[in-house]
Design goal:
With about 160 residues, the protein is mainly α. It contains five helices and no strands.
Length: about 160
């Protein structure tokens, strides 16, 4: 197999990582409307840039034998280049994971710090004192139910007459 074939095979996991990172970036950008932290967007952006650079590095590294043959680089020079590239990729990876961790901690803290809680608009509330407990399927009553029996008005009799017994 040629070096180009090997480099292409080595980039398959990076291309899959690029697709997942792009999907994560899209979801986190859409989630910004619902309060998702901007740190998540930044983390996915750093991951995508790092992945694209890693793919480019795979194909750029194919020309290392030509650099050595031309006499422009020694073995120590090549090691230095690989070390510098590895440090850049590791720092970018560490930065993206740090952004994700901060976003997760930040989102967990903000939800616990909410003092008041308002239930949704159609959420059934508990019965208030003096009102009967609402039964499922029945319309709530608008007036409180008295705890004492209703009083009846006295009968209308002309004066001086007694009610029949």
């Amino acid at each position: 197999m040629s070096p180009l074939t090997f480099a292409s095979i080595e980039t398959i996991p990076l291309v899959l990582q690029l697709a997942v990172g792009l999907l994560g970036l899209i979801v986190s950008v859409k989630g910004r409307a619902r309060g998702v932290s901007g740190l998540m967007v930044a983390a996915f952006a750093v991951m995508l840039v790092t992945t694209v650079l890693a793919i480019a590095w795979q194909f750029l590294a194919l020309s290392v034998p030509d650099w050595v043959d031309s006499g422009g680089l020694s073995v120590d020079g090549i090691r230095t280049i690989y070390l510098a590239v590895a440090i850049v990729f590791d720092v970018a990876s560490l930065l993206s994971w740090l952004l994700v961790a901060i976003a997760v901690v930040k989102s967990g803290r903000s939800s616990r710090q909410q003092q008041g809680f308002a239930p949704p608009a159609n959420y059934p509330m508990a019965a208030q004192p003096g009102y009967p407990v609402a039964q499922p399927g029945y319309a709530p009553q608008a007036q409180p139910q008295p705890n004492t029996p209703a009083q009846q008005p006295p009968s209308q009799q002309p004066p001086g007459q007694q009610p029949p017994s």
